[in-house]
Amino acid sequence: MQLSGNTILITGGSSGIGLEMTKQFSAFNNTVIICGRNKETLLQAQWEVPGIHIYTCDLAIESDRLKLATWIADNHPQLNVLINNAAIVHRENFTKDPFGYEKALKEIETNLTAPIHLIHLLLPLLRKQSSAAILNITTGLVYTPRTLYPIYNATKAALHSFTQVLREQIKPVPIEIIEVLFPVVNTPWHKGAAPRIAIQPQEAVAKMLKGIENNKAEIRVGAVQLLYFLQRLAPRFAFKKINQLP
Hints:
Order of helices and strands: EHEHEHEHEHEHEHH
CATH class: Alpha Beta
Number of domains: 1
Shape: globular
CATH topology: Rossmann fold
Number of helices: 8
Strand content: 15-25%
Distance between the termini: 37 Å
Largest sheet: 7 strands, parallel
Number of strands: 7
Helix content: 40-55%
CATH architecture: 3-Layer(aba) Sandwich
Structural class: alpha/beta
Radius of gyration: 17 Å
CATH superfamily: NAD(P)-binding Rossmann-like Domain
């Protein structure tokens, strides 16, 4: 995947890592489209990054995903990069939360079903481009889950598995399938309580771009590489350490 000259859709591109992706990809002379649920947040992102395109939708709703795909086809038929970044999390004890199932459905729909559906919807458009890529954003927690996030872990692990299979099934179509596994990043996602080991969004996205530049299909950012090896060598120790983080 080239870093410039693309037309890119970034889901959840108005805050956190998504906003930093929006900024850095825009700086590389790309046409960037972002979508999200909050119109005000999207407008703020557009003010911060002039020239981007915005679309308001809730990816947890199937009809919104269908409308987004139609809008993209009508207004940005040159789309050649899809970045599935949007995700939500509920910090909970699933066994004690009376609304645990309802929350789980929302997370599964946003974090897993939406990326799969968008890929399916936009594949016909991506196939028409001379160079295309799909980037699925996951986390080091696909290797070792954190007990604070019972459903988030599971959705990202499932997306990790789906991405591996998609990469093989799509051959020989020349669409790159890239997975970016981020470590803890200091974003509003943590609601002001990010662990001390969290890195800044600018560093996280810069390392992602470096991985893309080096043609990596699976980009393990920062400490994720260490967790990847640690989980294979000492899975119980890895589980203990990841769950001792503040």
